[in-house]
Amino acid sequence: MPKLLPRHTDAGRTALPSPPPLPPNASAGKRWRFRRNLVIYVAHRHGLSQRLLADVFDLPRSRVAAIIQELRRHELGSGETLD
């Protein structure tokens, strides 16, 4: 099993975004979907294709793209916009 690498914020690498918090009373289903979406986003950031992720999670590719775009917004600062 590969070792996990520490998070770096120097040399051009950025730390992972802080995801939007779930409400304290979030249901088990919402927490599960949030964790699944976060896994999809992190996997895509590390080079896995949207097509592969769609196959693994049995989702349409358009839904995977929407998940990635949604979580990417939280990574950008409040004043920044996507191209």
Mind explaining what this structure looks like?
The model has no long low-confidence stretch (mean pLDDT 80). The radius of gyration is 14 Å and the shape is globular. It has a domain at 28-75. Helices cover 49% and strands 0% of the residues. The chain has helices at residues 28-45, 50-57, 61-75. The longest helix has 18 residues, at 28-45. It is an all-alpha fold and 83 residues long.
Distance between the termini: 37 Å
Q: What is the radius of gyration?
A: 14 Å
Order of helices and strands: HHH
Give the low-pLDDT segments: none
What structural class do helix, strand and pairing data support?
Answer: mainly alpha
Strand count, sense and barrel status of the largest sheet are: none
Strand share of the residues? under 5%
Please tally the β strands and state the result. Answer: 0
- Assign a percent range to the helix content: 40-55%
Short description:
With 83 residues, this protein is mainly alpha-helical.
List the helices and strands and how they pair.
Blueprint: H1 28-45, H2 50-57, H3 61-75
Task: List descriptors.
83 residues; mainly alpha; 3 helices
